[in-house]
Amino acid sequence: MKKLIVGIFLSLSSLVFSQEIFQVIAPEGLTVRIAPNGKKIGKIPYGYPLSILEKGEPFSIKDNGKAKSGNWIKIDNTSTTVILDEGVNDSILKENFYGFSGYLITQKDFINQFEKEISTHSALKDFYLDKSYQCFAIKGDFFGDGIIDYLYRMIDSKGNVRLFIVDNQKNGSQIYGLGGDKDPFKIKNYDFPILMVIPKGTKLWSNSEKGIPRNLNGVSKKEIVTLDYDAIYVHQEKKKEGGFIFRKDGKWNWFNQK
After folding, report:
1. Main-chain phi, psi angles of 155, to 5 degrees
2. What gap in Å lies between CA 209 and CA 79, rounded to an integer?
3. pLDDT tens digit string along 207-247?
4. Which residues in 114-138 are b (16+ Cβ under 10 Å) and which e?
5. Rounded to an integer, what distance in angstroms lies between the CA atom of residue 172 and that of residue 169?
6. Phi, then psi, of 112 in degrees rounded to 5
7. Which residues share a beta bridge with 255?
């Protein structure tokens, strides 16, 4: 994984200076630059929040042949999580961050969108969306059928954090739950601050075996998986615990990531 820089999240209950919270909806993350139209330094993943310090002049870009309007914005870099590009030093945190507002919606609209979708599934009626995390909902093709699926971070009746993946299909949908007593990885509580989509084509492998760290050079080719669909990444950044989660051969798989 590239380097994660985790900012301090301004929760719904602790808004300061009346800053409105926005959520990133760019599927591959919001590109972050050191100046409007300047050098790219990283990205903010889909589903992560941010606050806007300043809004610049409006402009439009082309996205898959369609015009998308917005503004250059100055981002409060203490309000979000940024994945720095390879070779970018942490000292960049002293600089200003800029991005394009065309790939943002208000957090209120983001929550409403997913709570409305959740309400259509009777199997989820006893759970509620856990909005205490920076990222509590993501989208991706997690089953390789070309249809976008949803993942929700939710709380069960025992207070455990669960992950529910909705496999959207041409006719209906199927829901898979991770966490609780029947979790395939024996993880009852998915209290991982970091949650994000890993895009298809990424090399997946376990960087720890029996507690011993290892790099890619120490992994055999048969242990490396490269999917043509998306995977899921969860991590406890400070504890250095987490993993890649992906569906393959009819079951959920886990690769350790220390």
Report:
1. -110, 135
2. 35
3. 887 777 787 777 888 899 999 999 999 999 777 789 999 99
4. beeebeeeeebeebebbbebbbbbb
5. 5
6. -60, -40
7. 244
The DSSP string of the chain is -PPEEE-----TT---TTPPEEEE--TT-EEEESSTT--EEEEEPTT-EEEEEEEEEEEEEEETTEEEEEEEEEE-TTSSEEEEPTT--GGGGGS-EEEEGGGEEEHHHHHHHHHHHHTT-GGGTT-EE-TTSS--EEEE--SSSS--EEEEEEE-TTS-EEEEEEEE-SSSEEEEEESSTT-TTS-S----SEEEEEPTT-EE--SEETTEE--GGGS-GGG-EE-SS-EEEEEETTTTEEEEEEEETTEEEEEE--
Measured distance between the N- and C-terminal CA atoms of the chain, rounded to whole angstroms:
10
User: What is the rounded CA–CA span in Å between residue 207 and residue 212?
Assistant: 8
| pLDDT value, residue 198 | 96
Contact 241, 234 (CB under 8 A): no
pTM for this structure?
Answer: 0.89
- 80-105 average pLDDT score: 88
Q: Which residues of 56-77 are buried (b: 16+ CB within 10 A; e: fewer)?
A: eeeeeeeeeeeeeebbbbbbbb
The whole-angstrom distance between residue 187's C-alpha and the CA centroid of its chain comes to: 19
